[in-house]
Design a protein that fits this description.
Blueprint (H helix, E strand, L loop, with lengths): L1 E5 L3 H10 L5 E6 L6 H5 L8 E2 L7 E2 L7 H6 L2 H10 L4 E3 L4 E4 L4 H14 L3 E4 L5 E5 L2 E6 L2 E5 L1 E4 L14 H8 L4 E7 L3 E2 L4 H4 L4 E10 L2 E12 L3 E3 L1 H15 L4 E6 L6 H14 L5 H6 L4 H10 L13 H12 L1 E4 L2 E2 L7 E6 L17 E3 L7 E2 L4 H17 L3
Parallel strand pairs: 1-2, 1-11, 2-7, 11-21
Antiparallel strand pairs: 3-6, 4-22, 5-6, 8-9, 9-10, 12-20, 13-16, 13-19, 14-15, 14-17, 15-16, 17-18
Helix pairs in contact: 1-5, 1-13, 9-12
The structure holds flavin-adenine dinucleotide.
């Protein structure tokens, strides 16, 4: 049997390793000079390969339950075993995220690449696939002017996130040319753009905050974590966590807003009490100094500016109405979200090949027998925390087994 795999990322490499055996010829096409660029960049070079708690609710897409079978068949235990067989030890950390024990993405990549070579897979680097044609029982794959015939083809060409690491829409175009319905890609795990210039004044300020994402005025998601103000808007882990829902909503041109709670350990009444305590003990403080006791100075200045308050007046001059207004803004400072920071800065992308047209138990196309999909090219994207790599490994593994007919 002859198999073509399009894309040498987490999904394609896993599929190649799983399918490789005597009598099976595998060509693994990779458009870049080296495979696995995203694996090497992932988790800030540490590679958050998986999570000990995996569920379809950790994924987004038109039909996130599509992942259920893959997570059942190839869950964390199976992934741990797969990597152990390649000589990689994994270590879960407190919140369930899983990293290689070495703490280096290179360990994961080198193990995958070495296994691909050891098992006789024909790794064709710098060989982008331009087209896939159906011919009778099989396929003809064209790359750099050469045409080869195959019995099975797996498209594992990823998403347009991070084009500098090989991201692109190539996989989607190949799927469309073979008659598949696709969902437009949108950037996810990405910073968010705010209007106006207020955020520019606080660019570089980082804090622990609670973010509430509102879509058309309704609460969509609430998360707590790091928030970083930037020249374009906001970033940081908490922002990445709400970015998928925000990006999806923007795609549908919804009214998207974020409410930032600057002191999440206090409720609004608690913030009022905190301010009153300061005023009671240190009435001579300026309003700016009072706020600076609660947050970084540049943020305090921006808050006063936003509320059109002077800041030089003593805090004791604040009336109850002004105090409540200040506390309300500290507890729920609303900003419109006008855009994402784009595919170039996104870790992942939602959208892709419509999962209704793919068999969830085998990853085989329901409309083109013998054609398979795996990884981020599918309309599935996970939360931050190892969910995306896990799905790439799991779906690549399942597709390989199915291509071999078991
Ligand atoms: C900076 C960064 C950090 C990340 N950190 C994490 C993390 O810690 N944990 C986590 O779970 N996820 C993380 N992700 C996401 C994760 O890396 C991806 O979800 C995962 O790598 C997707 O695997 P894939 O095999 O589907 O696609 P990819 O890894 O994108 O692989 C697709 C491959 O196909 C190749 N290709 C595309 N078109 C063609 C073509 N026509 N012909 C031949 N080859 C083609 C591409 O060059 C690429 O090498 C991160 C992503 C980025 C960008």
């Amino acid at each position: 049997m002859r198999i073509a795999i399009v894309g040498g990322g987490a999904a394609g490499l896993t599929a190649a390793i799983t399918a490789a055996r005597p009598g099976i010829h595998i060509d693994l096409y990779e458009k870049q000079k080296e495979p696995g660029k995203k694996i090497l960049a992932s988790g800030n070079g540490r590679c958050n390969v998986s999570n000990t708690s995996l569920d379809f609710t950790d994924y987004y897409g038109r039909h996130p339950a599509f992942v259920t079978h893959a997570l059942k068949r190839f869950g964390y235990a199976e992934l741990e075993r797969f990597f152990l067989d390649l000589g990689v030890l994994l270590r879960p950390v407190a919140d369930g995220r899983v990293y290689p024990l070495s703490n280096e993405a290179k360990t994961v990549f080198h193990a995958l690449e070495a296994a691909v070579r050891r098992r006789g897979v024909n790794l064709l680097s710098d060989r982008g696939v331009a087209s896939i044609e159906r011919t009778g029982e099989g396929f003809v794959v064209a790359s750099k002017g050469q045409k080869e015939r195959y019995d099975r083809v797996l498209i594992a060409a990823g998403s347009p996130a991070a084009p500098q690491l090989g991201g692109g829409e190539g996989g989607l175009r190949l799927a469309e040319a073979l008659g598949h319905e696709t969902v437009p890609f949108y950037p996810t795990l990405v910073g968010l753009h705010l209007p106006g210039r207020l955020h520019e004044r606080v660019a570089g300020v980082k804090l622990h905050a609670r973010l509430t994402l509102y879509v058309d005025g309704r609460v969509e998601e609430r998360v707590e974590g790091d928030l970083l103000f930037t020249r374009y808007g906001i970033s940081g882990f908490a922002v990445l966590d709400i970015s998928t829902s925000a990006s999806r909503a923007l795609l549908r041109t919804r009214n998207v807003t974020v409410g930032i709670h600057l002191l999440p350990e206090y409720d609004r009444q608690g913030v009022v009490a905190l301010l009153q305590k300061l005023i009671g003990h240190a009435p001579q403080l300026s309003q700016l100094s009072m706020l600076h006791a609660l947050m970084p100075r540049r943020l305090a200045e921006a808050l006063l500016r936003f509320l059109k308050m002077e800041g030089e007046e003593p805090c004791s001059s604040l009336g109850p109405k002004e105090l409540r207004r200040l506390a309300s803004t500290i507890a729920d400072w609303r900003f419109s979200i006008i855009d994402t920071h784009g595919f170039r800065h996104a870790e992942t992308a939602g959208g892709g090949v419509a999962t209704e047209q793919v068999e969830a138990t085998t990853m085989e196309s329901k409309i083109v027998p013998g054609l398979y999909f795996a990884g981020e090219v599918l309309d599935i994207v996970g939360r931050r925390g190892g969910y995306n790599l896990h799905f790439a490994f799991a779906s690549g593994h399942m597709a390989a087994k199915a291509m071999l007919g078991r």
